[in-house]
Design brief:
The complex is a heterodimer of chains A (90) and B (465).
Chain A: H1 2-22, H2 30-40, H3 44-49, H4 56-84
Helix pairs in contact in A: 2-4
Chain B: H1 6-27, H2 34-52, H3 59-79, H4 85-110, H5 117-142, H6 151-179, H7 187-209, H8 217-238, H9 242-265, H10 270-276, H11 297-306, E1 309-314, H12 316-321, H13 324-336, E2 340-344, H14 355-362, E3 370-371, H15 373-376, E4 385-389, H16 398-401, E5 420-425, E6 445-449, H17 452-464
The chains are: A mainly alpha (90), B alpha/beta (465).
């Protein structure tokens, strides 16, 4: 139980940090920010890597979790990069 | 004594990956460093994955799934058109949620006794499921595959959400009672409850997004973006994985900030957007004086040619007509003609936050020419011509002049105060808000009817002659 409380402590701090970080972003960059954040939410990949694959159902669940998280990570970073390379100043 | 093993090394790796994520997001807040910021953030992801390799149980399965995901993701990312970015981002949000959904499902199956951890897996499944199915609906709405407004369906959706909430409370109560040793509740019962919860979470996402109209999509995808992060963070608590918690919270916070910015730019509360909608927020009965003054492309050219300062205000209509490249061409010709050209971008113009900025960036418009309402409104009187391209509600003067109007108080681009407002529009249909726009009837307004791309191409052709 103690560890859960500690994890919530990290959670709260991370939320405040996130709010501070993002509130400074100009509206020009809102779309790349969103797709970049999208890629970061693919962090579930890290959790999915170590999932148990004992039964058939567990295998399907792990495979799906990894696949969808990977789509997010690869697709998210690539499309964000594509967009950001277009932002130019004369 | 502190033991130094692979596990500790992994935790240290997570700390560095968190630093990279935070630094990457920080660099994203400036146009000149944003592209590097994205790379820094991807390094954080790479590091987090690398230090997790030690935990992999089934390498073949992991590698093949990752390869499949990488292929699908890259294909999407490299093929997608810039006008379709909102749909794609919505879909990717959904995939993030779905991944958390499967993760929590798998973890639940590993539990062999009733414990409070179950509540965490309930929460993750619920948020992940809502994110997934809600995003899929948002995707169909953005791609304009799903349209229409069904009153019965909307009412049913609201009731379903209330029912879902009740069921979740019952499910949590079961676990708590079971945890306290209440005999009627055993593991088998909770496992059944969990299956129902899986289905309910998917249906709740449908019920949540179905009643929300297309024009409110910037708020909806921002919120779903936030949800996909919260789902990851919640999965992180479930798996006691700090990398998931920190990265998930950053995404959750980022989506939340965008959601609030969007709601503020529409001058509406989140409750109003998600549960009321425009139609019930009162209607304006005020009659509009004045008449519509249509203008031909030839006459429009003469007006524009004489202008010394032009403000271009794009909206969703520009995205639909894919007119960003001809708009830029017109802008260049005007500048060659000695005219000062800037672009007025309203935060909710288009279908997602920053939508117009990406389209204009694609057409090579310099980002320091893209101005927000607060930058441009104070000097609006000095603008000779404001060219409104497929925007409606974001330039509706009712928002500042007519206290009874549903959109009263919304910050707008006050193009009615420019010397001339030239509006490019397909027809006289009202905008998403269903509010008539007095701008079209003003003395200094001219209407250029037709497809935005064609109309601008005609202007460009006149310039070249």
């Amino acid at each position: 139980m103690e560890i859960i409380v500690l994890l919530f402590f990290i959670l709260i701090l991370a939320i405040f940090l996130g709010l501070e970080l993002i509130s400074k972003i100009p509206s020009t960059l809102h779309t790349p920010l969103m797709s970049g954040a999208n890629a970061i939410s693919g962090i579930t990949l890290v959790g999915a890597l170590s999932l148990d694959t004992g039964s058939n159902l567990q295998m399907i669940l792990a495979f799906s979790a990894i696949t969808f998280a990977s789509i997010n990570v690869f697709g998210g970073y690539l499309v964000t990069n594509r967009m950001l390379r277009m932002f130019k100043k004369k | 004594m502190m033991e130094f093993d692979l596990n500790t090394l992994q935790q240290i790796g997570y700390i560095f990956s968190a630093i990279l994520f935070i630094y990457g997001l920080k660099m994203l807040s400036n146009e000149s460093s944003a592209a590097k910021g994205n790379v820094v953030s991807s390094m954080g992801m790479l590091l987090a994955v690398l230090v997790t390799v030690i935990e992999i149980v089934n390498p073949v399965l992991v590698l093949s799934a990752m390869l499949l995901g990488a292929l699908i993701g890259s294909a999407f990312a490299l093929k997608v058109k810039m006008t379709s970015i909102p749909e794609m981002v919505a879909l990717f949000n959904g995939f993030g949620g779905l991944s958390s959904f499967f993760l929590a499902w798998s973890e639940f199956n590993n539990l062999s006794a009733i414990s409070l951890i179950m509540i965490l897996s309930f929460m993750t499944v619920l948020i992940g499921g809502i994110t997934f199915s809600g995003s899929v609906i948002a995707f169909f709405k953005l791609a304009e595959i799903l349209k229409g407004d069904n009153n019965f369906l909307n009412k049913a959706s609201r009731w379903f959400l209330i029912f879902s909430l009740l069921f979740v409370i019952i499910a949590v109560a079961q676990v708590m009672a079971g945890g306290l040793g209440y005999e009627l509740i055993d593991l088998a019962l909770i496992q059944k409850t969990f299956i129902v919860l899986l289905i309910i979470s998917l249906l709740a996402g449908l019920a949540f997004v179905l009643p929300i109209g297309g024009g409110d999509m910037p708020v909806v995808i921002s919120l779903l973006n936030s949800f996909s992060g919260i789902a990851a963070a919640s999965a992180g608590v479930l798996l006691t994985n700090t990398a998931l918690i920190v990265a998930g919270c950053l995404v959750g916070a980022s989506g939340l900030v965008l959601t609030l910015i969007m709601a503020k730019s529409m001058n509406r509360t989140l409750y109003n957007i998600f549960f009321v909608g425009y139609e019930s927020s009162g209607s304006s009965a005020a009659e509009i004086d004045g008449e519509i003054k249509p203008i031909s492309a030839e006459d429009a050219y003469l007006v524009v040619e004489a202008a010394r300062s032009v403000l271009i205000v794009p909206g969703y209509g520009m995205a639909v007509a894919q007119a960003q490249h001809v708009v830029k061409e017109l802008g260049d010709l005007l500048e060659e003609n000695g005219c000062e050209v800037s672009y007025g971008i309203h935060p909710v113009a288009g279908r997602m936050p920053g939508h117009m900025n990406v389209l204009l960036a694609e057409a090579n418009v310099s980002y320091d020419n893209l101005l927000e309402p607060k930058d441009i409104n104070p000097t609006m009187e000095t603008v000779d011509i404001a060219i409104v391209i497929g925007a409606n509600d974001v330039v509706n003067p009712s928002a500042t002049e007519e206290p009874g109007s549903p959109i009263y108080g919304m910050p707008i681009l006050e193009v009615h105060r420019a010397k001339t407002a030239m509006v490019l529009k397909r027809s006289m249909a009202s905008g998403f808000a269903g509010v008539q726009n007095p701008l079209f009837f003003k003395e200094n307004s001219r209407m250029l009817f037709g497809d935005a791309k064609e109309s601008i191409s005609k202007l460009v052709a006149e310039f070249k002659d």
